[in-house]
Amino acid sequence: MVKGASSAAKRKGISNLAIGLTVVAFGTSMPEMTVSVLAALDGKNDASFGNVIGSNNFNLLFILGVAGLIFPLAVHRNTVNKEIPISLGAAFLLWLLVNDSWHGLSDPGINILSRLDGVILLLFFAGFLYYVYLSIKQTTGKNAEEGYQDFTMAKSILMTSLGLAALIGGGKLVVDHAVIIAQHYGWSEKLIGLTILAIGTSLPELATSSVAAYHKHDDIAIGNVVGSNIFNILFILGFTGLVRPIPYNTDMNRDIYVLIIGTIALVMFLFILPVHKLDRWKSFLMLVAYIFYTIYLIRLG
After folding, report:
1. How many domains does the chain have?
2. Nearest C-alpha neighbor of 231 from the set 249, 254, 252, 204
3. What integer is the mean pLDDT of 21-50?
4. CB-CB contact of 171 with 200 (8 Å)
5. If pLDDT is split at 50, 70 and 90, which confidence band does 164 have?
6. What is the extent of the structural domain holding 160?
7. pLDDT by residue (tens digit) across 37-75?
8. CATH code for position 243
9. DSSP readout, 24-90?
């Protein structure tokens, strides 16, 4: 998938960052889309929210941690100044929309991702797509990437599609069987969503960013994670809320706070020397933070 997507970007003169933020990010987020929508339709609200929020924390802390350990990642200036802040804004917007009782928009104790909330998230997602479109329009033909395999467009599309299909299929197999194991040990729906489902549906992102980092395709490695986090909140939860309003468990505010603080920490890391680079010691700290966070979740049950 990485080879196909990077070849398509080179052939069209589109930056790999734009490909990572869109085609790769959205494709690798298809498992989250499937799981969250089906969970919501089945009335498994904690699993639906937990899958998205947990996936974003896994993407941010674990996947970037692993990718940065494999090879230090050079982060594009636009990503630091624009795309990562958009990801942070999406997390804050979700927190604002689902905590209705906190700001007096509903009766005490009633918190829900309503259809109106879903529409708001989707409108912000449309704005993000327009931003990426403008970015592609400005850079097409100027930022063709060097050093990548050059396949025909038909072969690039075929490789990208087959790679995505394999990643999504593998992720679904892991999720299906991991949930059976977790239920056997009596884990709560919320814990399953934040850990088993979140990690299982994020395996495509893990595989993609790790391979991209190994081949020094920094923009795809970073763009995949940042784009997936934006897609997960704005599109997946937006679409899910539009299909069926989802009651929200405020216990998950803690996990949104982890996401917000983690994203702020990432921005701060990128302004510490070496600037705009996620080197190994920063990546290691992010990885350790995720491990401690997961232990904390399991201890809470």
Report:
1. 1
2. 204
3. 86
4. yes
5. confident
6. 2-300
7. 888 888 889 989 999 999 999 999 999 999 999 999 999
8. 1.20.1420.30
9. IHHHHTHHHHHHHHHHHHTT-HHHHHHHHHHHHHIIIIIIHHHHHHHSPEEPPHHIIIIIHHHHHHH
